[in-house]
Structures are given as structure tokens and as C-alpha cells.
Fold each of these.
Amino acid sequence: MDDADLLRSLDVDPAQLDPAPPPAERRAAGAERLKGSHPCARCGKPARATGVVDTPGHGRRWLDRCMPCLIVTTPRGGPRAPLTAMLAMLREAAQEAGVDLSIVTDEPYPAAMDRYHLTLTADGRPVMHGWWADLATAERKYTRWIGERGSREGARITLTDEADGGQLLKAWPDESH
């Protein structure tokens, strides 16, 4: 995704963004910029991260975002190996190291041994996924995600049983009330 695509995905007009300095001055200017009260270009909340985009016709511009919007809108490259192979390697390495590993990713992963699927969506778009083999662990994570991520505007957290065809076990907020 290039800068123009990123701005389109944010629904941001580059002409509305502040001009940015040349690359040599960017680091110091960015740190200084975050001391101010610049709004997030996507939602208007106070920005906690800033970067520079370069678009034809507008040149270098500051792109300020709050942390939730930064996480949701940061372009991600795909893995070099298939996701299933990469996660299998991670599991093996964790087992060898004696480390308890929980997989959290932004892509669906249909691992047969990880039955319980936790999903965080924001404004209807998937933001984060997690899978656990143990229901009690998945339920603890569900409760933790509500506390840690539930305040995000438009957040929805669901817990499903993938071994039972994706049966919904829990959803927050509970839309039945």
C-alpha cells in the first residue's frame, strides 16, 4: 500500500495535512510535534503517533494518528512463509524453550488444535484474532480483551468454538439487551 492508498483508506485529503520537513529534520520535528495537541487524522482524538506521507501534488505531509487508529491502519506485509507453516515453527520453538505460547494475529488461522477463536473488530473490520485450545484460557483472554480494548469506539469482541462450526459462545457488547 502506497501513501496515497493509505490516505484513501483513512478518508483523508492530503491537502488538509500539515506540511512536513525534509527527511533530515523529520525525527526531531516529529518528537516536537507529539508534544503538541495535534488531532488524529482519522478520528480527531489526540494523536500519539506521527509519520510522514508523500503524495503527488502535495509533497511531504504529517500524518498524525491516535494509537487505536495507527494499529488499525498500519499497512502490513504478508508473511514470507504460509501462515500455518510460520505458526507451526513458532509453536515448536516455544515448546523447545519451555515457553507457554498463545497465538494472536491479524489473520484467521484455522489450527485444528486451537479450537476457541477470539476476534476483535472495530467498526466492523477485524483488528485482531487469537486462538486457544483450552476454553478456560480463551474465556480469560476474552475478559482481558474487553478490559484492554473494549473502550475503543466501535469495538466488538467475540468468542467462538471453531470445532463446533464457529458457534458463538460470547459476544461483547451483548447486543441482546
Note: The mean pLDDT is 81.
Amino acid sequence: MSPIARSFADMVAYLDAKWRAAQSAGMLRSLFFALALPVGTVQACETALILAMDVSNSVDPGEYRLQIEGLALALEDPEIMDILVRDEIALSVMQWSGVDRQIVSLDWASMRSALHVTGFAGRVRGLERAFVLSDTAPAEALSEALRHFSTAPDCARKVIDVSGDGTPNAGGEVRHMRQKAERAGVTVNGLAIEGLGVAITNFYRLQLITRDGFVETARGHRDYARAIRKKILREISRIMG
């Protein structure tokens, strides 16, 4: 073999050895980091969110449909959908009204893909109203929502989203349930659907939401779709208080 050919062959062998060494180093680094992770480590759910809807006597059939459609549209919003999937957020829908009138309409579902979100939104659209001609008892609604977290996925945060268009006319003391939520590490937010003035907004702010929570106001049921979109986006974007 000529000196030039021998030199070229040596160079090829040298580069091949360097490449193999780099590959081995990369594999060793990957193995090291894999071994450093706890067994069973997976992407965690960021938020378990209960959407608690008021279906008391003050909500007529048309207003109920505005709430249902507004919630479905909010979930299908591209910006919200991206965050729901990215953080594998778990959703559940509850309907509430009087003292003994609370029901989980849609059980916990993790949003792991766009198909999960669109499917859940479709189920929201198909929800039948659970109660009619009933009082307004938000304390009992909070109590049921807190119990419902016992079956929730393991998420970093727990949030209750309470929407309604009236102040209590039945049930227990709302502030006591708020304190119970705070002790349990649960955030309570409110969506106040106002007719005239800000009476419901003030009630939610003073008695219902937790210290790390907030109130969004809808100017009537026709404004619900805008308000629930803004509220959910704020809840899942980790901007609280």
C-alpha cells in the first residue's frame, strides 16, 4: 500500500474510532440519566379541574344551553386545548342546585390528546339538565366537589370552578366550606353570571373563593362563553389569585 493510501486508511480508522467513542459516550449519558430517574417516573398531571355548573331554578332552559355550549366552545379553543393536552389536565363536570341536588355529570377524564379534548367537549354538549325547580346551595356544591377529588388522578393542583347566577337561598355556610377547601389545598374560583349590578360577584369574592382564587364576571348568560373561556385559560395557565 502506498504511503498516501496508508495515510488515508489511518485517517478513516481514526475518525471511525472517534465516532464510536462519541456514540458510546452518548449512550452512557442516556443510561446514566435514565438510571438517575425514579422508577415509574412519567409526565405528571398538572391540574385536576372540576367544572361545577349552577342549574338551580334561576337558570331557564335557554340559559342552560348557553352554559353548555359556552363550556364546550371554551374547551375547543386552540389555546386552551394546547394547554390541556400539554399538562395532561384532568376534567370533570358537576351540576348543582339545592341542598340534596348535586351530581357528577362527567367523571374524571385526562386530556392526553386533541381527540380527548374534542371528545370531552362533545360529551359536554350532550349533557341533559340534571335538576329543575330547585334552590341554590353553593355550600353543598363545594362539599360534593371536595369529596369528588377522592377519585381524581394524581395531579399537582386541585381546582373547583363554580359558576352560578344567584346567591344562596338554601344550605349551609359557604365560608365554612371555603375554609375546608383551603385546608385541603384546593383552589376555588368563581364565575358570577350577573343580571344587574355585581351582587353575585361580591358574594363569590367575599365568601366563596379561596385566598388563591379569583372571580370572573359574565354580564348575563349570553356573555358566559366569553367569560368561561377567559376563566379556564387563567385557571390552567397557573395564574391564580
Note: DSSP finds eight helices and six strands in the chain.
Amino acid sequence: MNALWITLALLTAGFVGWPVTAWVFRLARTIDDRADAGSGADASGAAAGGDAAEDPSADSTTDPDIQPAAEPAGPDTATPTPAAAAAAPSAETVSSVRILRGGAIIGILERFAVCLAILAGQPVAIAYVVAIKGLGRFAELKATPVAAERFIIGTLTSMLWAAGVAALAKVLFLG
């Protein structure tokens, strides 16, 4: 019977945690938009990064600070001069800039690990999960403030959800 409760706790922590995290991202976006509107800034301009930046539950977001390059005007400008090519990045390079790719899968695995660590009575293992995740994302987090904020919000939400589910299962069903 314990195996059933452990399995249910792991599945709940892993898969139900995604909508919870998405809700927290949406809440954070709403709070940011209200703060932007209150300070006189245009709230719609704050999310100029595209559809992925608008959707707080998206698997990845684009960096709103990077603007896509303009498309060539006609057949005469299809091949830019070397100086023009060096001055402006290509549209393919800029438009495909994405941050925190694979976040949904990593989040599920993270919640499984945190839940399992608590159920196994080894909460110190959570430190390993945080360290591995932070080291794996270090370059992205250092280069992009949007990624760092998303990483912190997502990781905290994810871990709190998994720890709560594991603690509840341990108290109610596993004694």
C-alpha cells in the first residue's frame, strides 16, 4: 500500500506541479504589468518579446531585449554587404534566441527528485538538485536577466510544490 501512496505522491508532485508553476508565472506577470502600468510605463510594451514571452506557462521564453533584424526590402538587398552583415545579426540568429529551453522536462524531473528525497528521508539531496540545476543553467542565467528571474520563480515554486506534496503524503499516508 505504501508503494501506491509513494507513486501517487511522485506523480502528483511531478505532473500537477506544472500547472501550479504556470499559475505562479502568470501571477508574477500580472504583478509586473500592474507595477509597469502604475509607474507610467506601457504594460503592453513590456512584453514585446513575442508570444512565448507573453505565455507564462511556455516551455521557453524569448529575450525581449533582442530585437529581430529587418527583412530585406527586395531582390537587390537579399545579399547584404560584408559590412552590413557584420553590423546587424541575421534574422534567423536573433529570432531563434530562446532561453530556458527544456524547462518543463527539467521541472518534472526536479519535482520527482525533491519529492523522492523527502519521502526517502534524505532532504539533503535537494541541495544536489539545486546545485546541478544551477550549474547547468549558469551561462544562460548570467547572460540574461529574464532567464534568471524565470529560473528563480520556477525553481522555488516547483520545489515548494514537490516538498508540500511529499510532506503531506508522508504525514497522512506513510506515517
Note: The chain has seven helices and no strands.
Amino acid sequence: MLASTGIKGLFAYRALRKMNGHSAKPTQNKGNLVTSSALSNATTPPSVATIMGSAYAISKMTDSPKIQRFLLKSTLSVSVAGLLNAGLKRLIGRKRPRAESGPEFKGPALKDKFNSMPSGHACAVAAVAGSIPRTSGPLLLASAAGLAATAVIGRSRTKRDAHHLSDVLVGSCLGFGVAYAVSKLEKPVEAKVEDQKQSTSLTNRFK
């Protein structure tokens, strides 16, 4: 399942790249939403984690357990993926495309110009997309939209000269991988909670 999701994400990105291959020059695209600073700021791992966490807190006031579960999984996935991504960036030390000087790879580095691999933005959006269940028609469409969003963010990061294509692909795979792991870990926890509920219910009946 994880492999197929990653392949779909790659296909979506390549399709978008082809469609926009003959677009206007980068100088003319700076005002576009895809390359805007607003989109860049809103899709950093901390921003996405905050958005999903706030949505989860609001959802607790509603009677929508499925939505609550998705938002909780998304928040956890983005948080974990963001931390892993930040650590990898500093360990790998790859130079960003927009950096003017220095070696291609520096190794462990804290300077932003050597924090290219992997892409944190692609990682965060992929973590959310990977948390969407794919069990029915509407959810399949939502999942496809999530994959498309990951592709758009990937294009945004490469168009802004913040990342190489490989940075985006590795970041996306990391996000999808963490979402998949969180989803797998959630199942035994849910089963245990359900067992405890049933056990409590039976105990209360016989009191």
C-alpha cells in the first residue's frame, strides 16, 4: 500500500511538472499562488502541525469520530515526520539550489543553505495526505486530492529554488512512510481501547 501511494505521488508530481513545463519565466511566476511566500509559510511542518492540531481540538466539540481520528493521526504524523526531517536535513547537509557558494554536500550543518535534503514542506503535506483513509469513493477522491497537493507543494519548492526534485521525492516518501507507520500503530491501540470499553460495560451490567 505504501509503495503504491508513493508511486501515485511521483506520477502526480511528474504530471504537474509536464503540464507546467511550458509556463512563463520564473520572474513572471513570482506572483503565482504556487510560488508565493504565503503558501511556503503555511506549509512548513510546524505550521501544518499547528493547523491540524487546532482542527483536531475544534473537532472534539463535534460528534465525528472518523474526522477526529483523521485529524489526530495527521497531527501525530506531521509532528513526527517534521522532527525526523529536521534531523535528516542537518545530518545530510545538502546545498540548496539557490545557494551561491560552497560544496554540494557539507555533511552535518546548521546553516539554512545546506538544509536542502529532504524537503520539509513536501514531508508535512505528504504526512497529511497519507493519513487520509482510502476505504470508499469520497475518501479515495480526498486521498487523490492529498496526493495532488503534495505534488503542488513539491513544484512550489523546486520553482522557488529551495529544493532539488530528489529532495521533494525523499521528503514525500518520509511523510507517507510516517503516516503509514502511525496508521499501523493506531490499530492495536484502538483494539485495546475497544476491549476495555466492552469489559467496563460488562462489569457495569453485573453490578
Note: Residues 22-31 have pLDDT under 50 and may be disordered.
